[in-house]
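Dear support,

I submitted the protein below through the web form. The confirmation email said the job was done, but the results page showed an empty box. After a refresh the structure appeared. I'm attaching both so you can tell me whether what I see now is the final result or a partial one.
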Amino acid sequence: MNAPVRTREGGFTLIELLVALLILAALALMSYRGLGAILDARAHIGKETDKWRHVASFFSRFQRDVQLAAPRQVRAGSALAPAWLGRPEGTADALVEFSRFAASGGVDTPKRLGYRLNDNGEIELWLWAGLDVAPNALPAKYAVLRGVSQFQVQYLNSDLTWANVWPLSPIAAPLPRAVRLRVVLESGEELVRVFALNA
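What the results page shows now:
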């Protein structure tokens, strides 16, 4: 008498299930790592985009201010200050200070303003209430660019040479011909921009 032949019914063995689970776990792990890398890259790109947007905004603002520079001396207490004043690095005052006309839209007024790198690695915009500065009047200070390690300004004179201070002499032109900014970010990038004045 022949032994009955067993026929296999539908289903998976335990080994087949374990292999399938192992493959699914490996796929899930790879997907998780890929998604993590994508999210990290997205966060990095967002941070870099914000940084360069702020840098572009700063240079745009500085260019607008320079294009509106006014060749007008101002009264600062009992003395006269030059229309454009460029101080040497390391000063506690604004590194560059100048008079500015109002914009053509008529929404602002002529101003005296300055730029300086503070101890927190921020380039500050200094704004006085008007062109002439009252004795002991302090400017309002606004951080316009953060994450800066160096901020240098040079001035192009009529001999087409760059100087680190302005004016070079009491009889020099009230405004330089151009201004060169050098900004070094804390992340290591060095940016140099030259702005011509409408003088």
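Response: this is the final, complete result; the empty box was a page-load delay. The radius of gyration is 32 Å.
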